[in-house]
Amino acid sequence: MTLATAYAVAAPDGRFEKTTVERRKLGPDDVLIDVKFAGICHSDIHTARNEWQGTSYPCVPGHEIAGIVAAVGSHVTGFAVGDRVGVGCLVDSCGECENCLVGSQQYCSRGATWTYNHKVPEAVQDGGITMGGYSTQIVVTQGFVVSIPDGIALEQAAPLLCAGITLFSPLRHWNAGPGKRVAIIGMGGLGHIGVKIAAALGAEVTVLSQSLSKQDDGLRFGAHHYFATADETTFRTLRGHFDLIINTVSAELPMTKYISLLKLDGTLVVVGMPPEPMLIPAPSLIGARRSVAGSLIGGLPQTQEMLNFCADHGIGAEIEVIAADRIDEAYDRVLRSDIRYRFVIDTATF
């Protein structure tokens, strides 16, 4: 066993406290990682505060992990001590189902193992709950570790392991690129990376945000157009305009109005998770053969593709690096949308 310093929350209304967690003994296929930076995702907040129910305490969140390889098992061939690596939302899957075999481990038909607050597979360890990246070290099976290219700073790469792949995957799947009009709803932690990636793919990119307060940033990140959705003329101006719309926000939206912005055969992809069910009247789809779809993260091959793409195009997350004693403050600021655009914890402060 390896002992790691971590920050955990003990109850839904608790504050983060320093603690010690046990990492499993290094197995032949395992990689021991010294965590350098851990991004804060809105999912961390939902889980830590038990807003999705089912949180096991103490809870150590964190699935945007960037670090350096400290040791490798005897069967590890793809990584060596000193390598720059990352770990995202997944740390295991069955490896045998149809989805896993094509590299879509996130859709494992038997259920993938998430990086934190998930039962550890019996094949790996007898009992226990996964503990995430708010810690100094983590042990992960080599198949769920990705390389971070030299072209991206570790702290800027950390949010790409969730936010980056969450946007890259649907942009790739729905063929965003030259000749395609793509809209990103929301200019937060997810949306700002989506703008950068969509622009680098060659699409004509429009940001749909409640106000124009982040317009200068959006245009700087590569957006060609920026519209305020609080202005009703936006929906008249852009009616039937987009091939693809990606909704990154976790709030209830008037879906009929947004669907009306799609062209014939256009698709609106949901990656944010609003707490309430979405109301989608059938006529808004039938009238122009439109679709509404959902997308999770990407699998491990696509996550590596995303990192390589971001390195090649100079894409990193816009971040504010914080010390461990500011995690609670950061959570509150995320809920107030008081961040441009992603918090990253420096584990050197542990």
Plain-language structure description:
- The chain is an alpha/beta fold.
- It folds into two domains: 2-159 and 318-349, Quinone Oxidoreductase, Chain A, domain 1, CATH 3.90.180; 164-294, Rossmann fold, CATH 3.40.50.720.
- 23% of the residues lie in helices and 26% in strands.
- Strand 1 (2-8) and strand 2 form a beta hairpin.
- Helix 4 (163-173) crosses helix 10.
- Mind summarizing the main beta sheet? 7 strands, mixed
Number of domains: 2
CATH topology of the largest domain: Quinone Oxidoreductase, Chain A, domain 1
Helix % is 10-25%
Mean pLDDT, rounded to whole units?
96
The CATH homologous superfamily name of the largest domain equals Medium-chain alcohol dehydrogenases, catalytic domain
- Estimated radius of gyration: 20 Å
Global shape: globular
Structural class of the secondary structure composition? alpha/beta
Write down the oligomeric state: single chain
Order of helices and strands: EEEHEEEHEEEHHEHEHEHEHEHEHEHE
Portion in strands: 25-35%
Total helices: the number is: 11
Termini separation comes to 20 Å
> CATH top level of the largest domain?
Alpha Beta
The poorly predicted ranges are: none
Number of strands: 17
Any guess at the CATH architecture of the largest domain?
Alpha-Beta Complex
Labels describing this entry:
single chain, Rossmann fold, alpha/beta, seven-stranded mixed β-sheet, 350 residues, six-stranded parallel β-sheet, 11 helices, Quinone Oxidoreductase, Chain A, domain 1, 2 domains
Gist of the model:
This protein has about 350 residues and is α/β, with parallel strands linked by helices.
